[in-house]
Amino acid sequence: MRSILRLSVFSLALAFASPSVATAQEPPVPPLPTNQRIAVKVIVIANFEPGKDMGDVPGEFQLWAEREHLDEVIPLPGATHPLRRNAQGLYGMVWGSTGTLFSDNGQQLIGLLMDPRFDFTKTYWLFTGISGVDPAVASVGSAAWARWVVQGDTLREFDDREVPTSWPYGLFAIGADKPDRLPTNGNSFGGTDDISGLGMAIELNQGLARWAFERTRSVRIPDSPSLRRARAAWKGYPNAQRPPFVLMGETLGSRRYWHGPGRTRWARDWVRLWTHQKGVFAMTNMESQTLAGAIELGAKLKLVDPGRVMVLRTGSNPSMPPPGTSATASVGDEGPGQMVAYEANYRVGVPVVHELLDHWDLYADTVPSVDTPANDPAKPAR
Fold it and tell me: Residue 125: CA atoms inside 13 Å, Cβ hemisphere, count?
């Protein structure tokens, strides 16, 4: 989530009406069994919804709830939104809402994992939401499948006005002596032999991420006149001037809503640092690190298979202003891109969800995978 704006987007929603919305009468959802645990096949987790799950101003979850007919409501203790499901066995939920930014949504996810009614040991997870996008890598509206989730909250920080003149910024790793360096002391937090030091980088199943990318790389994401006008300002950034597209790139989660060229430079360096030069910063948001950490804990408790987790983020706004525009004039400017990003979340994610559900006999015991391609599609063009 990069904003908690309540936008009037009903007219835009009509413009982006999806051809995949079912028109036939949906079969009734069978009731929850009372004498056995439910083996959940696929679940979609969104991060915020400004109002109701259906029928009002869309957020990250509403298109999923309406178009996939997640009509059965399953209340959960302590959750801000109920769990939902449809007749085909797709589950979905929002793990936050406007006004609950101080809540720990990771704890809510652990609560779901420990609910005795459900079995998540073979569940495929799709974490999806909108983000700020690095204009060096992609344009607003684009969708990125992540291979790593990187945490950007735990670090040392100096005021940029007080750092040595040779430093690019005042953010650096705990245990390091300057920015863009891993800790040098093996006994400090996040020693150099530990890529995940302090939980900084969680590596996802890259074969599964590439499989999802290959299945969706040609998905058409709707463009808009406002986005086309905005893209014209990005001279010197060829990827930012492209219509929305699907790519592979990492997500950086931080509770701080940062913005600007200086912090974008830090984000690029930070992602490369903690993935040992293998990852490329693409999307910035406020939740990925929390929910990825909850899944990691759930895996240690043998409640979930972390090899079945996918993260899809879509760009609602650039992480820095275009040339000639100040950061203060552009921060939070999500109006042109927010609805397109919601649409991209659904359109790019739904083919993967349907494939897993429609061919569960293939994927129940075998996680799909694609080997590393010769030309990995996450390298920026500039």
Answer: 28
Q: What is the mean pLDDT of residues 10-27?
A: 41
**Alpha-carbon gap, residue 131 to 35, rounded angstroms:** 41
Instruction: Please count the structural domains in the chain.
Output: 2
Does residue 65 sit in helix, strand or coil?
helix
Q: Is residue 275 a contact partner of residue 201, using CB atoms and an 8 Å limit?
A: yes
The stretch 295-307 carries a mean pLDDT of 93
Query: Do 82 and 225 fall within a single domain?
Result: yes
In contact, 331 and 262? CB cutoff 8 Å: no
Does some domain include residue 379?
no
In eight-state DSSP terms, residue 57 is S
Mean pLDDT within 246-258? 94
Q: What percent of the chain has pLDDT over 90?
A: 63
Q: How many CB atoms lie within 10 A of CB 45?
A: 25
- pLDDT tens for 50-90 read 888 888 888 899 999 999 999 999 988 877 788 999 999 99
Q: Which residue has the tokens 């929603």?
A: 13
Structure tokens of 301? 């408790």
pTM summary value: 0.87
| Helical packing angle, 206-216 and 335-358, nearest 10° | 110
Do 239 and 329 lie in one domain? The reply is yes
Alpha helices in the chain (DSSP H): 10-15, 62-67, 105-113, 206-216, 225-231, 261-274, 288-300, 327-330, 335-358, 360-363
